[in-house]
């Protein structure tokens, strides 16, 4: 089978609930490793997949193997071995999202450093899938707390990395504990002798799949990445659009839904923007591309499939708003710029937990992607002033201003005002809709589905603004703009707790990033065994709450809902309460302080510790 394929996920015989989840996520076309691995794994064959990290291996084994899980059996049927804690968590979270429509499905990540009691509790409840590191899986096998009698399949993910880390003996020991008739899928970037020996010993007539990774990218493309931190991705994108010397932009996201959502939010900020995804008819697709070529669009937000073969001379920048899971997809994406001898820019947004994908891209392409500093408010102001001066120069050189010179001279004589003051007043009138010195809230407006505003600016080539964007904007509610401490608050319940591995920093980070609420306005985070309560600004928009319903923390959707605890306001409520854990014998993590940057520090407190007396208010 060739590297390029016209297969789509709907062509696979996946279980209907899995197919439904794939459609909702927005996956369209499988990567080469997915296209070649899913059919044989669905048939029950053993598979060896040789492919670089970041080629989409998780979906390659998760989708077919989850399709065969028996939900009526609350015992481990699928075991995935991963070399690191981070990869185990990532695979478990992916499994949970793919199994969204499987009722009663449970997946458990198991790794060292996590409380053994928590793992034992969840194993006793019953899980269908276990994802873990070899050492901790061995611990449970020795304790007989993990039984593999009903195991249907084993996956060795990044087998060569497990060999490098010294886990190969543990892997063999675990395989000896598995039933004889189980299916095995082995994925590895390379095939050292030790891995080849394991394959010959424990796999039955395996199908070997080799995927060649892209090794070169266009030398004319400058490649940079921004590590997502603090500033919301949409705010960061807005600043980059403001400051970069550019012509037209192609912004890549993972899903069809995201193309529409992001395009609408950029349009609300004053950009000439359109979406390009697989749901568009051919006529609509061609119309969007023609508008981009003609200059009536400056930004197109696209999925990988929709942008295939796109060749538009104007595209100077490619933004990977969502980092691709497939290194080849990255190469194809950035290849949309820097074509036919022209130079181009490619910028990659990387969340801290996605750094392994960045490293995989660098290894596969053999090129270093350099870190970039996010433009500051001052950078945006400098850029706007420079553009304003350019506009002045253009008008002075191209327009007959005699009538206006007479008008100004008359006004100066009648009003006894200096020419400098008149010029300053006229400049203010011209730029008041888009201030030369922007405020933070204008450039860093949080992503909200009800957002509509003048925006922080646009690329130099974009001078179009809808009529309803020309008025001055009223200030946003404090919940969105980062208001003071006197924000009216309301208590909400989140459907995630200590038993799921939730921590204060996860919850605060998720709400701050997804809802655009400053961390100082996320208060009284109280973590219980099965749920968490938190105070948020009372005027939070219903559309934001609806979005937060689907945000995942610790492998679960938040399912946020208001409680009957009422509202609070003022400085008294700004002090965060400890994260409270149920059970008198369990050590409790308490919130000791917030740093000046809004981050939380925690410390351990034993069950017998005396509670501090609340300060008088």
Secondary-structure topology with pairs:
Blueprint: H1 16-25, H2 32-42, E1 47-50, H3 57-66, E2 78-81, H4 85-98, E3 107-110, H5 116-125, E4 129-132, H6 134-143, E5 153-156, H7 159-164, H8 168-176, E6 183-188, H9 193-202, E7 207-210, E8 221-227, H10 233-243, E9 248-252, H11 256-268, E10 273-276, H12 282-294, E11 299-302, E12 315-320, H13 327-334, E13 344-350, H14 355-365, E14 370-371, H15 377-398, H16 402-415, H17 419-431, H18 440-443, H19 478-481, E15 489-494, H20 504-515, E16 523-527, E17 532-537, H21 542-549, E18 552-553, E19 556-557, E20 561-562, E21 588-594, E22 600-605
Parallel strand pairs: 1-6, 1-7, 2-4, 2-5, 3-4, 5-6, 8-13, 8-14, 9-11, 9-12, 10-11, 12-13
Antiparallel strand pairs: 15-17, 15-20, 16-17, 18-19, 21-22
**Would you identify the regions where 5 or more consecutive residues have pLDDT less than 50?**
441-484, 565-617
Instruction: Indicate the radius of gyration in whole angstroms.
Output: 28 Å
Mean pLDDT value: 79
Number of separate domains: 3
Q: What is the topology, as strand order, of the major beta sheet? A: 3-4-2-5-6-1-7
Q: Beta-strand level of the residues, as a percent range? A: 15-25%
Architecture of the largest domain, according to CATH?
A: 3-Layer(aba) Sandwich
Q: Based on the structure, what is the oligomeric state of the protein chains?
A: single chain
CATH fold field value of the largest domain: Rossmann fold
- Tell me how many strands there are: 22
Structural class: alpha/beta
Distance between the termini: 71 Å
From the spread of the alpha carbons, the general shape counts as globular
CATH class of the largest domain: Alpha Beta
Relative helix content: 25-40%
Q: Find the CATH superfamily of the largest domain.
A: P-loop containing nucleotide triphosphate hydrolases
What can be said about the biggest beta sheet? 7 strands, parallel
| Number of H- or I-type helical stretches | 21
Biased composition (Low complexity): 449-460, 565-577
Biased composition (Basic and acidic residues): 594-606
Protein name: ATP-dependent RNA helicase DeaD
Enzyme class: hydrolase
């Amino acid at each position: 089978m060739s590297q390029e394929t016209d297969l789509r996920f709907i062509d696979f015989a996946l279980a209907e609930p899995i197919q439904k989840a794939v459609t909702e996520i927005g996956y369209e076309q499988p990567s080469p490793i997915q296209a070649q691995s899913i059919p044989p794994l669905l048939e029950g064959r053993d598979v060896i997949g040789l492919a670089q990290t970041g080629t989409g291996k998780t979906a390659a084994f998760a989708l077919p193997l989850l399709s065969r899980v028996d939900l009526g059996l609350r015992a481990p049927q699928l075991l995935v071995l991963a070399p690191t804690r981070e990869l185990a968590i990532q695979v478990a979270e992916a499994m949970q999202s793919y199994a969204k429509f499987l009722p009663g499905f449970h997946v458990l990540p198991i790794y060292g450093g996590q409380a053994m009691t928590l793992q034992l509790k969840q194993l006793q409840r019953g899980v269908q899938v276990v994802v873990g590191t070899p050492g901790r899986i061995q611990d449970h096998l020795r304790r007989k707390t993990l039984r593999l009698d009903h195991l249907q399949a084993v996956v060795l993910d990044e087998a060569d990395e497990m060999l490098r880390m010294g886990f190969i003996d543990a892997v063999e020991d675990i395989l000896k504990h598995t039933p004889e008739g189980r299916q095995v899928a082995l994925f590895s970037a390379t095939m050292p002798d030790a891995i080849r020996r394991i394959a010959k010993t424990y796999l039955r007539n395996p199908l070997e799949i080799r995927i060649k990774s892209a090794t070169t990218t266009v030398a004319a493309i400058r490649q940079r990445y921004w590590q997502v931190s603090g500033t919301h991705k949409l705010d960061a994108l807005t600043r980059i659009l403001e400051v970069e010397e550019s012509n037209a932009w192609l912004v890549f996201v993972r899903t069809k839904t995201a193309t529409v959502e992001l395009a609408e939010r950029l349009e609300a900020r004053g950009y000439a923007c359109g979406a390009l995804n697989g749901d568009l008819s051919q006529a609509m697709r061609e119309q969007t591309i023609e508008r981009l070529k003609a200059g009536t669009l400056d930004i197109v937000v696209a999925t990988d499939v929709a942008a295939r073969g796109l060749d538009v001379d104007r595209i100077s920048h490619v933004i990977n708003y969502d980092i691709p899971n497939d290194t080849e997809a990255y190469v194809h994406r950035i290849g949309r710029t820097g074509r036919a001898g022209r130079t181009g820019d490619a910028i990659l947004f990387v969340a801290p937990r996605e750094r392994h994908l960045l490293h995989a891209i660098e290894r596969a392409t053999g090129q270093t992607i350099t870190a970039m500093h996010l433009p500051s408010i001052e950078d945006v102001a400098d850029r706007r002033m420079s553009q304003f001066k350019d506009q002045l120069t253009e008008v002075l050189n191209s327009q007959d201003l005699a009538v206006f010179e007479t008008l100004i001279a008359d006004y100066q004589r009648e009003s006894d005002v200096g020419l400098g003051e008149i010029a300053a007043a006229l400049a203010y009138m011209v730029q008041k809709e888009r201030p030369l010195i922007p405020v933070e809230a204008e450039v860093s407006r949080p992503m909200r589905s009800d957002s509509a505003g003048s925006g922080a600016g646009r690329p130099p080539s974009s001078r179009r603004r809808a009529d309803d964007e020309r008025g001055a904007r009223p200030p946003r509610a404090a919940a969105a703009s980062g208001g003071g401490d006197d924000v009216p608050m309301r208590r909400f319940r989140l459907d995630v707790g200590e038993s799921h591995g939730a921590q204060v920093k996860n919850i605060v980070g998720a709400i701050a990033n997804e809802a655009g609420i400053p961390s100082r306005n996320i208060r009284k985070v109280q973590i219980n065994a099965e749920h968490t309560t938190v105070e948020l600004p009372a005027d939070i928009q219903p559309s934001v709450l609806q979005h937060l319903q689907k945000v995942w923390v610790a492998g679960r959707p938040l399912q946020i809902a208001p409680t009957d605890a009422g509202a609070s306001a003022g400085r008294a409520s700004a002090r965060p309460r400890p994260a409270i854990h149920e059970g008198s014998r369990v050590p409790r993590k308490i919130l000791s302080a917030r740093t000046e940057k809004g981050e939380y520090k925690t410390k351990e407190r034993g069950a017998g510790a005396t509670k501090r007396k609340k300060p008088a208010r």
